[in-house]
Amino acid sequence: MISKSQLKVKRIFDVLLALMCLPLLIVPILLLVLIATIDTKKWGVYSQCRVGQYGKLFRIYKIRTLGDGEHQLGQLDNSASSIGKFLRQTKLNELPQLYNVLIGDMSFVGPRPDLQGFADELIGDDRIILEVKPGITGPATLKYRHEERVLERQNNPKHYNRTIIWVDKVKINKNYVQNYSFYLDLTLILKSILNK
């Protein structure tokens, strides 16, 4: 189980790494926001309410990849423009979350932040997942990197997501918290970079 001292070290590492990355990535992020604004004809930064550490709600920030209209689970990649698809596939749309890390809503590594109705409804031992800040990457994120493609093949994407994928993610993220180490975080960051 992750300890309070490990959480402190994790937070210090997050701040230092975010401060190192932001000067290098601020111009690319601004360019992507401009491109997304032109591409989607809406402001290029998208924000949404997500469940964070201890169940606290926060706003997550992404580069916008979808335009107007309704977007169904399992059809998001199809709803995106060619530029939006590229941003989603390369995960470049996640870059604004460096800001979320810097202000303390997120970590570089942890369970992905969920919409209400998932992590906030965990019970019993499963709630240890909420002990850590949600992450830009993590073990479940790596396993389900192509989650949209999996959901596209399902007759009922919402049901499959809740009964199969979500259940597996809970097990993976629970194991991450129970067996946490700083070395594990470094390994997951490296794997995420190499998987780009």
Shape: globular
Regions with little confidence, pLDDT below 50 for 5+ residues: none
Gyration radius, in Å:
17 Å
Could you give the count of β-strands?
4
- State the share of residues found in helices, binned by percent: 40-55%
Can you offer a commentary on this structure?
The chain crosses the membrane at residues 12-38. Residues 10-193 form the Bacterial sugar transferase domain. It is globular and about 45 Å long. It has a two-stranded antiparallel ribbon with strand order 1-2. The protein is mainly alpha-helical. It is built from eight helices and four strands. The two termini are 30 Å apart. 31% of the residues are buried. The model has no long low-confidence stretch (mean pLDDT 91). It has helices at residues 4-40, 76-79, 82-90, 97-102, 139-143, 147-152, 157-178, 182-194, and strands at 45-51, 57-63, 107-109, 135-137. The protein has one domain (4-194).
What would you say about this model in short?
The protein contains eight helices and four strands. By secondary structure, it is mainly α.
Summarize the helices and strands and which ones pair or pack.
Elements: H1 4-40, E1 45-51, E2 57-63, H2 76-79, H3 82-90, H4 97-102, E3 107-109, E4 135-137, H5 139-143, H6 147-152, H7 157-178, H8 182-194
Parallel strand pairs: 3-4
Antiparallel strand pairs: 1-2
Keywords, separated by commas or semicolons:
8 helices; transferase; two-stranded parallel sheet; single chain; globular; 196 residues; mainly alpha; two-stranded antiparallel ribbon
